Amino acid sequence: xxxxxxxxxxxxxxxxxxxxxxxxxxxxxxxxxxxxxxxxxxxxxxxxxxxxxxxxxxxxxxxxxxxxxxxxxxxxxxxxxxxxxxxxxxxxxxxxxxxxxxxxxxxxxxxxxxxxxxxxxxxxxxxxxxxxxxxxxxxxxxxxxxxxxxxxxx
Length: 154
Description:
- The structure is a single chain.
- By secondary structure, the chain is of the alpha/beta class.
- It has helices at residues 15-27, 52-72, 86-93, 107-115, and strands spanning 3-8, 32-40, 75-83, 98-102, 119-123.
- Strands 3-2-1-4-5 form a five-stranded parallel sheet.
- Helix 3 (86-93) packs parallel to helix 4 (107-115).
- The protein starts with a strand and ends in a 31-residue tail after the last strand.
- Residues 129-133 have low confidence and may be disordered.
């Protein structure tokens, strides 16, 4: 029985990317597909911490994965996994026959996947998102009277 693992590396990506990743795992001949949706928890928080807004977004991804598995008639599961990093998640997942990464494949994730003896397929997000911050007006300089340096003498 071929086992495939789908890892959602970019949880902010479009849901169609997750559907494409599950379909890619199915075309690779996998009968059981395990979909892992990581929730990377910072070291300053306990591992069980999960803010409600993040939980709602991750549950929507999980529902999409379950619907896709059901629609394709495949066995498997989809779960939200709290972890400290994606490479730690890959090491804990074991060695599947095929790994499909939905999202950006970082260097540390690539190294962790190279340590396993699995076939790897990456479906990167199409374009990087840009965050534009509002520009603040810049001051030309400090407004001080002519001849003073900002220091006061006693």
